[in-house]
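thought: fold this chain, then report.
action: predict
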Amino acid sequence: MADKIVEKVPKPIVYSGFAYRTKILLFYVLFYAALIGFFAAMLAVFYQTLDAKKPKWMLDESLIGSNPGLGFRPMPPDSNVESTLIWYKSNDRGNVQYWQEELTNFLEVNYKKEKLPHASNIENCAGKQEPEPGRVCDVAMDNKWAPCLARDGFNYNSSIGGPCIFLKLNKIYGWKPEYYNNTGLPPNMPPHLKEQLQNMNYGPNEYAHKFVWVTCEGENPADIENIGPIQFFPSAGFSGKYFPFMNQDGYLSPLVAVYFEKPTRGVLINIECKAWARNIYHDRVDRRGSVHFELMVD
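observation:
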């Protein structure tokens, strides 16, 4: 009788609870370590395509485009985040203090620039068309800005005068303004700015016209009547020596302080400020090249 072949079935390996949990833990440790390593490698490759000081997409290729807008300070309280109304009572110290503190915080970098990491890169460009190569021009808050200085309370506590509101041009990397001269002026340019440009000296060594000019006007006939006289400090525009912005060390954004000498009190005034250069286009709906805010002084 032929021998019977007996097939031996291997016995199943039975792990203890501890060994089983150890294997599961080891699997997940190796899995997540590999995942983290892969992600880190891809992130390192991605960062090799970026420049720490220069955006990959610039001007018209970027999302923000090549048409800078204007911003204003002080901003209303966070509780009214969508509001553009500057409303205060000049004889209410607590109410006035909020707006003064907002401006003080905004201008802190200008008042304490010596504490900046690259303060040595900032130079006084008074009387110069541009800074030294590799350096940037100072935005000095000196007596030329009075009464739009912290020591004067930015004129918010004046019993007869109006406040100072600061304008800034949004920074766009590599953007250069195309300056206006005495020809080709747009028809919607305010008459006083047209007259100023037409009477300006445009000799080869003159750079007084190399400004991104700023104008502020009431939006409606009633606003024009109530806005009163306006002064700009230290000048009615942003000097060309601050452009282009190339993310330079120590760079300070140029500012213009708009001083409302005597706005009508107790009346809401709609104000529109515009920046003027040949390559700045205005669109009231999208607020391109301009900014809108309301002013009410009680």
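thought: worth noting. The CA atoms of residues 228 and 263 lie 5 Å apart.
final: tokens above.
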